Amino acid sequence: MRVLSCKIFFNQGNLKHVQPSVVVCQKRSRSNKDDDYQYLQRSKVPTLHFQASLPRLPIPELQKTCDRYLAAQRPLLSAQDYAKTEAIVSEFKKGEGFSLQKQLKDWDEKNKHTSYISELWFDKYLSDRVPLPINYNPQIVFVNEKKPGYGTQLIRATNMLISSLRFMKSIRAEILEPEVFHLNPKKSDTKLFRTVTRLLPSSLSWYGAYLFGAFPLDMSQYGSLFNTTRIPKINKDSLFQNEYAKHMVVMKGGNFYVFDVFDKDGNILQPADLLACLKYILDDTTPPAEHPIGVLTTENRNTWAKARQHLENIGNVDVLSLIDSGIFTLCFDDVEIAGDLYFLLRHFLHSDGQNRWFDKSFSMLITKDGYAALNFEHSWGDGVAILRYFQDMLKDSSENPRIHPDTKPSNCRPESLVRKLEFKLDDKAKDYVSQGKKNYEAFCNSLHITYIEILNHGRKDCRNFKVSPDSLMQLAFQVAFHKQVGKFVATYESSSTAAFKHGRTETLRPCTMATKTFCEAVNRSNRPSNSELAAMIKKCSEVHVTLTKEAAMGQGFDRHLFGLRRLAEQGGGKLPAIFQDPAYAAINHNILSTSTLSSPSVRAGGFGPVVKDGFGLAYSIWDESLGAVVASYPPARDGPGYIDCLRAAFDDIFEILKSSNT
């Protein structure tokens, strides 16, 4: 399990008033205590069986990091500037870099329980003071429910809640299937694999999986999916978790409601009881909150920390504790998407902030017409953990629903189970909320979101052309930016290092000399023949695949240099010249920030640019189609213009590949 910055346990004494009614529901649920209702999976291999023997995240050789860094700088710099940076790097690896590398290795040797990047990465996230929505919290939108009658707000929410609780219980009972990457699923994703690896001790189990051609992934983040909240503090936030809490937090109209979803023995309440509680909340006629406290979670973190401290000082400690410790936040939104993808992207990424608690590990958002999404806080974990929950929960709620269109709510007296939370507010607290609403409205209005869908090409076409689908997407982003702006800029692609104990992410640098050569060739008037251009595309793919493998194996340069820089900062004194070089600042000013969560379960994703003059590019690759969501801050960047260039780039690339393939 990952050690959180702040892990606190306390008794839910302020929920004791609901116990008599819970006992009534508990009696009916005892027949379900040992059946399939309580757990989503019953893996024979314990969930964390491979954790003890996972390989540790390697610290790359300093020489290789320097070489990779220079290779990433080369397409971005003029010959003169590159020569300066090359000289600085040469001095660094012989002097200060050598010393810092030794310090990093010494620290790593003394901390074998974790990775060299884990603590530094937590610190990076938790110390940043910018607001969470748009800047950090991504959205992931579920595909719509296809079965007639099951896609209503109430039915879908109840089934998703039940499946979420089953997933959570499976994790905590260690019977959720371990996360394993199978090189050849037909050979390794088998009963024999599970039997053999289960019999091996945890200290050897990873090696047994490796012999099958299977690679277990780090699951230390999974425990933080539930009952976890980021708490605002001055200068650096903390993470809070209370695994003993049994209640859900539901938001509607900016109001907060809580109710227990487990009985005193830890059993999930009956489906009809959960349906009754959620229906009671949806039917509540309380008007929208006049002073929606949730909007404070959209503020600058220091501003929110001061506001929260004031809320606690005037008597809201217990209310805030209930929100913090809840399993997750379920937000009933009083809007309809009605097929409007533009509205969907804005609503699930940021909305007006009044019916949100962006600090929660994740919030499940469901509209009146049954569209659903997750919005998740990023410091506690990365895409691997959230996507596993996303997919498993959706599959279970859709294929094995416990609530049906004809299901009637139980008579468990939901009015005695559900409690509406009331905040004590003075004029100062109200002013914080009022100012927060104004700040957030201005922030959201400054953001532009658009999207592109390529419906006639997808993963299958890329493979037929013998080109990496991810490399093709990244190449299109480069071609489009060069077509629009006429230059090459720092580009970031996130790559998971979950193959290692406490791995987080590594940066893949998709702007290479190969992509630069292709962009300059394809965007000029007297461009080469299609066969020559096709050869360039395949060269770009080869380079990209190599970079992808290196990043996944912890052999990028970004995290390594980040760790060395942090050590230099902690040591005091003057920073090494490499970290003062304008080229280092420029390559970390990621104008194209890209990430993908491609899955048949995902309708769309999205996040904001990481710099004001950048693009946030969330893309998806499906078998028959491709898509990308483009976020920007005009007038610094022109999102619609970039989309036009991106569509032209896809047309060019696929036309070149088709003509050379005939």
UniProtKB/TrEMBL annotation:
Record PROSITE patterns: ACYLTRANSF_C_2 (PS00440)
Keyword Acyltransferase: yes
GO molecular-function term, one example from the UniProt record: carnitine O-palmitoyltransferase activity
GO biological process entries: fatty acid beta-oxidation
Keywords, alphabetical: Acyltransferase, Transferase
Limits of the Choline/carnitine acyltransferase domain: 57-646
Keyword Translocase in annotation: no
Domain of life: Eukaryota
SUPFAM superfamilies attached to this UniProt entry: CoA-dependent acyltransferases
GO cellular component: mitochondrion
Annotated catalytic residues: H378 (proton acceptor)
PANTHER family the record matches: CARNITINE O-ACYLTRANSFERASE, CARNITINE O-PALMITOYLTRANSFERASE 2, MITOCHONDRIAL
Family, per entry: Belongs to the carnitine/choline acetyltransferase family.
Protein name listed in UniProt: Carnitine O-palmitoyltransferase 2, mitochondrial
Organism: Cryptotermes secundus
